[in-house]
Amino acid sequence: TGDQGYLDADGYLFLTGRLKELINRGGEKVAPREVEEALLAHPAVAEAVAFALPDARLGEEVAAAVVCRAGEEAAETALRRFVAERLAPFKVPRRVVFVQALPKGETGKVQRIGLADRLCLGATAVDGPVAAGAAVAPRTPVEEIVAAVWAEVLGVERVGVLDDFLALGGDSILATQVVARLRAALGLDLSVATFFEAPTVASMGEVIDGLLARDEERGAAG
């Protein structure tokens, strides 16, 4: 039938989506329904739809359109962090856009295929990583290290301390490369999840400063 689903232990059939709607993120298959359920668990989200976003390197990335509840607001970074606590890193939307209503077809059903174009996201995503505009220069030695590693991995000229890693074209694969280089440079135990908790150079610098201070305290106590 083209439907995707599963049978539970009692033999009940659960439909999770259509095979043609699966997002193929560099060979990793993402079911839109799973991403939508994670977004809908947020108290500010009334409606959500996940869809494929064209990506020059991976083929497709995960994106989502969200309608907030009346009187409620949510930030894109906060929603990505919320989803990251519930799903694997590669399933977290690279982009979250806020709309007044979800685009629907004649039957009243949201059509995920082609949604990136209808929301004017397709052309931007295909361009891949872009250089930062009015970038704020690093202010501390740690921020300089982080910004230099980000710029090298993302393939951009420079990165400002307030630039968002995912907005610059980053993803979980590139985040893994950044983490490995920062571990080697600073000798700290960082994880990919750090990018969803601290998505800018400034916020990541604060996390690293905290880890360095903790290690110094432990060394002094020892």
Brief description of this entry?
The protein is α+β, with helices and mostly antiparallel strands. The chain contains 8 helices and 7 strands; from the N terminus they run ββββαββαβαααααα.
Describe this structure in words.
The chain is α+β, with helices and mostly antiparallel strands and 222 residues long. The chain has helices at residues 32-40, 76-84, 115-118, 122-126, 141-154, 172-186, 194-197, 201-221; strands spanning 3-7, 13-18, 23-25, 28-30, 45-55, 59-68, 95-98. Strands 5-6-7 form a three-stranded mixed sheet. Strand 3 (23-25) and strand 4 (28-30) form a beta hairpin. Helix 5 (141-154) packs across helix 8. The longest helix has 21 residues, at 201-221. The protein is elongated, with a radius of gyration of 19 Å.
